[in-house]
Automatic annotation (TrEMBL):
Originating species: candidate division Kazan bacterium RBG_13_50_9
Domain Large ribosomal subunit protein uL2 C-terminal intervals: 125-254
Top-level taxon in the UniProt lineage: Bacteria
Protein name: Large ribosomal subunit protein uL2
UniProt entry tagged with the keyword Ribosomal protein: yes
One Gene Ontology term of the molecular function aspect: transferase activity
Length: 281
């Protein structure tokens, strides 16, 4: 993929860049049986409470049903097309199995139309194939990694992402994530081989606000510009400070430096946390 900087023929085009999608089908309709209408969450959780600010609106999109479990073992599949998915940053591939079943999978960077892939505990290590971690050599880029065998891929699913196996320890594999975090994952867990597609996704410049609005992003208002009923930083006359010792979120929780990552059952499997710096730096 190549990032193309557009000519400044208008004010909105000045500084705008796009990713040239060579070999990616963008003008065709997706497989109807593998798509469904996507409900707009607008930054709300299951209880209807806004947990992500400045979300809403945007163009209508259809959800592609991507197979993250990839549990059809031993049956080869052929890649029919590489397609754009409006709901995720990486591209997806339409795979057709020998028995005629069709499915969408996350497309690795080096996967091409006509390639054959297979899901098997022990098979050839090449982009698109899916096998157990214990059969993948250390240093090979992998994605869509399971945390528990049979649960489906949960880790490394965004554009340009890739993890690597650093070593093996008894029944666990030490996997280094794109964030730098190193965690223990069962050897029997499955993972797909290859660096995920669209690695230049983070290098594009949107250029104008309207392009972000079509993606469902709304303007973000500073907390100190709001009323006290809407934000803890609000109120006061003119450009007054927030009036607090530490900044807070709209719901009153500490922010900007306050660690909010919750402990879960998988926290004990983290060997090295992300963003860990050496002392003296």
């Amino acid at each position: 993929m190549v990032v193309k900087v557009l000519k400044p023929v208008t004010a909105g085009r000045r500084g705008m860049s796009i990713v040239q999608r060579f070999g990616v089908l963008t003008k065709i309709k997706p497989n109807k049986a593998l798509t469904r209408g996507a409900k707009r969450q607008s930054g709300r959780n299951a209880r209807g409470v806004i947990t992500v600010q400045a979300r809403g609106g945007g163009a209508k999109q259809r959800m592609r049903q991507v197979d993250l479990k990839q549990s059809k073992l031993g049956v080869p599949a052929t890649i029919r097309s590489i397609e754009y998915d409006p709901k995720r940053s990486s591209y997806i591939a339409l795979a057709i199995f020998l028995d005629g079943e069709k499915t969408y999978i996350l497309a690795p960077h080096d996967l091409k139309v006509g390639d054959r892939i297979v899901y098997n505990p022990n098979t050839k290590v090449k982009p698109g194939n899916r096998l157990m971690l214990k059969n993948i050599p250390a240093g090979i880029p992998i994605h869509n990694i399971e945390l528990q065998p049979g649960r489906g891929g949960q880790l490394v699913r965004s554009a340009g992402g890739a993890a690597t196996i650093t070593s093996f320890d008894k029944d666990k594999a030490l996997v280094k994530m794109p964030s730098g975090e190193v965690r223990l994952v069962p050897k029997e867990a499955f993972a797909s081989v290859g660096l995920l597609s669209n690695p230049d996704h983070s290098h594009i410049s949107f250029g104008k606000a309207g392009r972000r609005r079509r993606m469902g992003h709304r303007p973000r208002v500073r907390g100190k510009a709001k009323n006290p009923v809407d934000h803890p930083h609000g109120g006061g006359e003119g450009g007054s400070p927030i009036g607090l010792k530490h900044p807070k979120t709209p719901t009153g929780k500490p922010t900007k430096g306050y660690k909010t990552r919750k402990k879960s059952r998988s926290t004990k499997h983290i060997v090295k946390p992300r963003g860990k710096r050496r002392r003296g730096r």
